[in-house]
Specification:
The structure is a single chain. The protein is mainly alpha-helical. The protein folds into 2 domains: 348 residues, no CATH class; 87 residues, no CATH class. The strands form 2 sheets. The protein has a two-stranded antiparallel ribbon. It has a two-stranded antiparallel sheet with strand order 3-4. Helix 7 runs antiparallel to helix 21 and helix 11 runs antiparallel to helix 19.
Length: 461
Amino acid sequence: MKNLIKSHLLVLISTLLLGTGFLNNQFKVAEQGWFQNHQQDTESLVVGRMIKAKRDGIFSAGGLTGQVSGIKQLTINDTLQWSGQAVSSQYQAYYNDLDFTSFNPYFSQIGFQAISFSLIDKILPLSPQHYIMFLKFMNAYSFAFVLSLIIRWFYLEFGLFSALMVMLTTICSHWVTVFGRNLWWVMWAFYLPYLVSLYHLQQKTSINTAIILIYATVFIKCLYNGYEYITTTLLMMVTPYIYYWWVEGWNFKYLVKQLLIVGTTAMISVLSTTIILAAQISAVKGGLKAGLHHIFIYSVGKRTHGDAGSYPEVYANSLKADVITVVKKYLEGFIFDFNQMLGGSSQDLNVKYQTVIVVFAFISCLVWLFHFLFQWGKLPLTEDSIRKLTALSIAVWFSLLAPLSWMVIFKGHSYIHTHMNFITWHMPFTLLGFGLLGTFLSMLVTTIYNLRHNQDMKEAS
């Protein structure tokens, strides 16, 4: 009971700290201008949908997100664009209840977040400015709560130091922070399938329960943020199975069976949501065939390895790029901007993703050294603790496939979107990596203490 209270208190503290960072950049981990404007262009599609819904109904234009144009009292082109003027005009039109002449839908996402926000907008008696603030608050703290439940798992499995390491490094991540409150991304939905996998395996619920939870959470993910980082999400979802395979001592055949069940369930869930999106597109373009073509031919092609000659120049260049070039871009990005946090004292304080990968690799080598020393009876550790530590190390390197899957399979998207795809490193590779670091350091201290204690006992006798 005491441990349960501590874990709930940890969730509360973690949610408050993470949520505050996501909402206001309270800990100054990101440059303030970047924090304020990050992905405001995509967020404006949600605001545009809310404007459209207010005048023409929630499911007008298929319920798709998009931008309004021909706004009265404003001058703006009649085509969908990503300029600062087009983006800012969406907020001006929403805040001032301005009329418009046309709506330019975005066809690559269901946009249920915008549909649900539009529905709540009709219920809550808030001014437009206060309602946007309310939505950002809810989004930031919902994401913080989901991450805190994952942090709680680290506490229950590995102890307080491991959990605190995950929490503090997440707080310090500028990439997680700038995404945290964005109304387009709805970040908590990405981590739901991973969270329910942890719950199912930790609580040992039935396979039928797991199927229902996986289907529902993957469905929610696709409803709220479409197919962005879908391979990353699905590999993140199955990572807990790799951990529990080693901890529980499953045979490999049983692991494969479990992965096939949850993987098939997830894929059925994803495909079932494409029917909804195709129907939305057909409501605008006319005909289900047009919707399916846009999803499976145009959208998938330009984001993966499609024919460069079939797309505009910006997409053609991305499709021509080689995979190594793309991955290298993401290895050289910064995971921590301590220069920003400390007021611009030194660029040398910034930490790259490739640096933490090397650190995780070094720690993993030490973990396996501990594993073999324990097998030889050289370390005063419990079998349970060393098995969990080894399992976490295996899970870390399996989870590396999650971000890499997007960079490799969706090479075209990753080549262009270096202003956002760094977030995939945190799904859940860096979470597990820093959890491993915290767990190993804690076990190292315990081992040194036990060895000294045993030595003192020998000398005393």
